Amino acid sequence: MEKRTEGAWVINHTKKLLDVRDTPDFEDIEVAGKCGVFLSNLAASDEQSDLNSDKVSAIAKVSNIKKTEIETIKNKLAEARLIELGNNGSISVLGITTSTVLSHTSDIFTNCNPSNFQKAALELADNISDLPKGEKILNEYISDTYSLSKTSTSDLMLQSEEIGFIDYETLDDKSKFYFNGNLFKRENVIKTNAVLSSLKSEETKKITELDGLLTSKGCITLEKAKSFLGEQLLSKLQSIGMYDFNEVSNSKETKTFVTKPSAFSKYGNPFEEDALDLAKAFVSSLYYGINFSTSGRGKITMLKALMRRLVNGYEVGPATAIGEDYKLLELKRVIQLRPEAGTSMYYMRLLKKDVGALAIQVLEFGDTSEQTVVNSNIYSGSVTNYVGPEQKRYANRKKQNLQSKKSVAELLRTFRS
After folding, report:
1. Does the pLDDT at position 240 exceed 80?
2. 237, exposed or middle or buried, with CB in 10 Å at 0-12, 13-18, 19+?
3. Where among 125, 154, 180 does a domain terminate?
4. Chain mean pLDDT for the chain
5. Residue range of the domain that includes 161
6. How many folded domains does the chain comprise?
């Protein structure tokens, strides 16, 4: 497995472990994953960041790092020479892109000397990303590849199911068929065909129309998607990962936007390109600004000009909406806000330019990795808070409550002071 891919899976699994208690078998995955997320949230893409202890503490909270863990995480990153520890809890970090974060995460995981059990947990998820696998074949492959006993393999499969590393459906013969939420991120045409072949012709036509819209626009509202497919069909397709649901919210409302998992595939492996969900969050926040923000608070009307200024290192603004609609992006240091003196308006500057560049490609060009062929036998379809596609999909499958939203006001004060 390539470093970037391994790092992406480490972070993916770490997100799942956050909602589970007592998982000692996956400690190295969790430590390395938290190191990666913390590093990403500390760093800008092309400049050195010097952060005082208050901001470091705020970033640790955003990164879901407990007080009992923070010193271990900081020391791991310092040992890897990725950060410099200053006096009184301050940290300095050189410019780091999302791509290099994944590679560093993989290195930290390797340096933890993980067990074959943990390595197998990563391979297990990656192996069913391309195509679903049957229980017997998957068990034999994992057992042989990582020299696990039958008991250990069974334990791994059981824990992976319960934690959510993998999903499964039980077939008529009572055997299990495993898959995960990354199924439609690569080689989308064949997989989409397989889904459509099991649907009614009327449902297939609706999906074809929706995919055509997503291909041209890149992102649409949940309400628009429901108008095409209906709630029941859309929910079913979400549960297998055919569509990504991205939730953004501000002090007034919550909006959910739908994208295709393959939307970033033109620009590389989409699972790796946006493993931290930062570009998806940016796309959704910008789309909110374009479609729902009023001109009085800062409606986005000139997207290309705005993004060009951001990617080139300039500030945009001032606007009231900037202080409301991008709070999570601010907390994860995708952007930096500066208040205008004497007003409630803010200026915005882009810190992670690689994330901005990826977001604007999808917003401007849609999902240009594929083309939609209508009426063909071969189907080729192509911000205060943010809830990513995998969390939305998993909650939909398992009928779990989404993680309760924390108040971000105190953290934002730290960032804006």
Report:
1. no
2. buried
3. 180
4. 78
5. 117-180
6. 3
